[in-house]
Amino acid sequence: MAIGKRIRFFRNRKGMTQKQLGEILGFLGKTSDVRMAQYESEARTPKHDLVKEMAHIFDISTHALTVPDIDTYIGLMHTLFALEDIYGLKIGEIDGEICLRLDKSDYSTYTSMFDMFHAWQEQAAKLEQSEITKEEYDQWRYQYPELDTSKHWAKVPSQAVSDMLMEELQKIEKEEKKTSKQKKKKA
């Protein structure tokens, strides 16, 4: 879902008008609703600091506002394809029903994702069994992982951090090979 639709969704969830939200964000009274309409229609894209302010107002994680564009079935399919590429999400069939599953061949990704999915499944089961309200379930989802108490999930490093670590490991490996060759020449 595009960010404009997410802003509208959470604004409506809080029962706020565009004008009210704009004024809380510090926009001038005369133009506050116009600015918010521009963000919701995606004529303008809010900067990260503004996204953080809105998330704080809505009492949600910034991630809940910046989810991928899944407004169309095609956009959703490409999001799922990306999840397959990045996290090993696989499509299959169980008892005649299409299902998504985690690929066990990448153990690290599998265990991290399994734990996160398991935490989600626990909350969904609590909702289904009326142990929590829909509002509590939504609060858990929209503030994930901050409100997750299952301790099942593990934080996965960003791609940039992962790339940096791999680069450093490769440098160390090259240096060790170089040192090893020098020792062999001396011997």
What is the general shape?
A: extended
The proportion of strand residues reads 5-15%
Would you report the number of β strands?
A: 2
Strands side by side in the biggest sheet: 1-2
Distance between the termini: 64 Å
Number of helices: 9
Give a description of the structure.
The chain has a two-stranded antiparallel ribbon with strand order 1-2. Helix content is 63%, strand content 6%. Helix 1 crosses helix 3 and helix 7 (107-128) packs antiparallel against helix 8 (134-142). It has helices spanning 3-13, 18-24, 32-41, 48-58, 62-65, 73-87, 107-128, 134-142, 159-186; strands at 89-94, 97-102. The protein has 9 helices and 2 strands. The mean pLDDT is 86. By secondary structure, the protein is mainly alpha-helical.
Can you describe this structure in just a few lines?
The protein is mainly alpha-helical and 187 residues long. 63% of the residues lie in helices and 6% in strands.
Question: What is the fold's blueprint, element by element?
Answer:
Blueprint: H1 3-13, H2 18-24, H3 32-41, H4 48-58, H5 62-65, H6 73-87, E1 89-94, E2 97-102, H7 107-128, H8 134-142, H9 159-186
Antiparallel strand pairs: 1-2
Helix pairs in contact: 1-3, 2-3, 7-8
